[in-house]
Amino acid sequence: MAEAEAVCDRVAIMVSGKLRCIGSIEHLKSKFGKNYLLEMKVKTTEQRESLHREILRVFPQAAQQERYSSVMVYKLPVENVRPLAQAFCMLEKVKQIFDLEEYSLSQSTLEQVFLELSKEQELDDFDEELDPSVRRKLLPQEDP
């Protein structure tokens, strides 16, 4: 995927033999990327718990992905981050309060877009395999 991002102008993604999307890399990321990735590096590990609480306060739907000795990684839903200027303003305040060494906020990668589309396809395939009576129990349908 990294090679595709480096050399391709347009990308097509096929899942289970079906063309799911085609377009420029930026178009696919903005259309199908559902999350931003926030990475923060703390200077002292004693601040991690209070920093975690602050991130959840600033971005209520943040989901912690990884936690190393000095690095914390969160997945942030796109709608939680917009407008970007406001998100960066809040992150700068957090950086000063907690004396962060550095932070980065990045868009979904092409690989994450592909994995998201593949996961959706798996769910669609699973739903099609179900007996209609079971499907009705899993996904209640409203009568018009």
From TrEMBL:
Molecular function GO labels: ABC-type transporter activity; lipid transporter activity
Matching Pfam families: R1_ABCA1
Gene Ontology CC terms, in alphabetical order: mitochondrial inner membrane
Domain ABCA1-4-like C-terminal R2 regulatory: 33-107
Name of the protein described by the UniProt record: ABC-type organic anion transporter ABCA8-like
Gene: LOC123326742
